[in-house]
Input
Amino acid sequence: MADRYDVIVIGAGPAGYHAAIRAAQLGLKTACIDKSLDSEGNPVFGGTCLNWGCIPSKALLDISHKYADAERKFPAFGIKTGKLAVDVAKVMKHKSDVVKKLTQGVAGLFKGNGVDGLPGVGRLLAGRKVEYTPHDASATVLEAEHVILAPGSEAVSIDPTPLTEGLIVDSTGALEFDAVPKRLGVIGAGVIGLELGSVWNRFGSEVIVLEALEEFLPMADQRIARDAKKLFEAQGLDIRLGTRVIGSSIKGQTVTVQYQDKEGEKSIAVDKLIVAVGRRPYTKGLLAPDSGVNLDERGFLFVNDLCATDAHQVYGIGDAVRGPMLAHKGMEEGIMVAERIAGQKPMVNYECVPSVIYTHPEVAWVGKTEQELKRDGEQFNVGQFAFSANGRALAAGDGDGLVKIIADADSDRILGVHVLGPQASELVAQAVIAMEFDASAEDLGLTMFAHPTLSEAVHEAALGVAGHAIHMVNRKKKT
Ligand code: FAD
Ligand code: AMP
Output
């Protein structure tokens, strides 16, 4: 550890560690401070994403998906399995092994790139001084030319359902169950609620999702949201919209949840309750009163389009600043800030941030939804293609969902791409690339896609914008 750095990053989640590694690659003397400890008390880098978010949740989603396929689909494919059972301890071991490999990978990348990874707490003082308190020693003050704040976010809790060890849990607790709950309640039908509800539903839990809003996935294209809800319900998720949770009580190992819907007050009894009502920026203890950094009215670090805070040469990135709370959004901000510090001029294109819900089928989109465009009075054309007409999807027994492409009526420029289907998270990347290059639907239509692939559904939807998809009868016929 040195006393003076070109760059000090506080927070080694995806935003912070990308910033630190890129800064070091560019020849800047860089340190990255992070206070996270794993369940055994060892310092870990990687933040929420690697330890308690994206990665462990996807490990459980991927394993539970294989289990659900074996149980629900294999018989129809002629594969006989005998009676299936899940060993939750082994599932959790797989998850923990993946997390360990990746968090150790970040530590290795720090070493390999010359970043000083500093376990402990960082606090920004005035004049780009950073108070660093290691876990096992007293505080020292480091100085930096530039400071990047990447402290991330934390789960929101609500008064009616205070977290209670092993019974009422947040997303972190829901990644640690030691047995499959018989009845599971989930508050919040957002991305995290649906993903975690799906995991335990696939392993056999009866899952009830309570969502205050009347609309399902309001941020997604509503055609996609409608179809997704039907598919999730068919899988067994009991999604109750317009239900606001107002209280809870615990007797023995049972949680009773009170909620209000149109008809009045009701309750359900469950073995476990997951509270997944959103996340908020985490800035506790981060800023000395005279740090010069301000928060906005919702508690986010206040930054401009280039992630600069109100303090000179201090930046904010990731979940703790405005914009979607997504790992890849923070990663791009981290790289942008590091490169700008080094004198380059990149920008983050906030118009092209893909969103994904890793259910099955997955939901993924980029750009504008049809309802947003209608609200803004924009003129557009839509091309849609169902996976039920895609040979590869049918071959895999995965014919649910569709691709929907929305293009500007005059220029044909792609404005939004929405996918409900197998590997939607991968398919949407094609749309992001196309939109980054300002492609038209015709450009995608003129591109050759390998056959047979799921990607052909993207191709066909693009052709459908002009009314000449091949494997469906086009509603509007064009030459
Ligand atoms: P974080 O990852 O939260 O990291 C911040 C780090 O800073 C933490 O380690 C924290 O301890 C540390 N820190 C904070 N303050 C200090 C301080 N003062 N001193 C030292 N260290 C400090 N996003 C996706 O894009 N895809 C997904 O599939 C996805 N799945 C998710 C699933 C779940 C269950 C959850 C909870 C989140 C998921 N997310 C997903 C969101 C994703 O995890 C976050 O967007 C991402 O982790 C934010 O990155 P970050 O670097 O801003 O902050
Ligand atoms: P997200 O912010 O995408 O993670 O989604 C969280 C969801 O939780 C939102 O759709 C909220 O409407 C929902 N929510 C918040 N509070 C409650 C509550 N008391 N009862 C039911 N749903 C809630």
